[in-house]
Amino acid sequence: MTQTSRETNMSHSTTELAHSLIDQTAQSAGAAIQTTQRVANDAVGSLSHTLQTAQHQVRDSAHLASDKTVAYIREEPVKSMLIAAAAGAALMALARAISQPRGSR
């Protein structure tokens, strides 16, 4: 074998090795991407389920609070009106204090 043919064979071997390494790297990257997608999809699914559960809990709590409020108003209508009036007056005082310029307080 001549020097030129040995160099050509070595060049082909190096090229084949490089292509093989590139193919292996591409396969590894593809597997990593698939794993990442699966983990991300699982996380999104879990988060979605958690949010739906929380939404149902908040809705149930709001309905319960509403029912309790209505029941209290029916049992104590005068007291309920006084509480509502006091809360309204407190909110008005707060709004007035916030809206006044700082120097005029």
Structure description:
By secondary structure, this protein is mainly alpha-helical. The protein has one domain (3-104). The chain is 91% helix and 0% strand. Helix 1 (3-75) crosses helix 2. The longest helix has 73 residues, at 3-75. The chain starts with a helix and ends in a 6-residue tail after the last helix. The relative contact order is 0.03.
The poorly predicted ranges are: none
Shape from CA axes?
elongated
Q: Could you give the order of the helices and strands?
A: HH
If you average the pLDDT, what whole number results?
Answer: 90
What attributes does this structure have?
single chain; 105 residues
Quick structural gist:
By secondary structure, the chain is an all-alpha fold. It has helices at about 5-75, 75-100. It has one domain (about 5-105).
Give me the secondary-structure topology.
Layout: H1 3-75, H2 77-99
Helix pairs in contact: 1-2
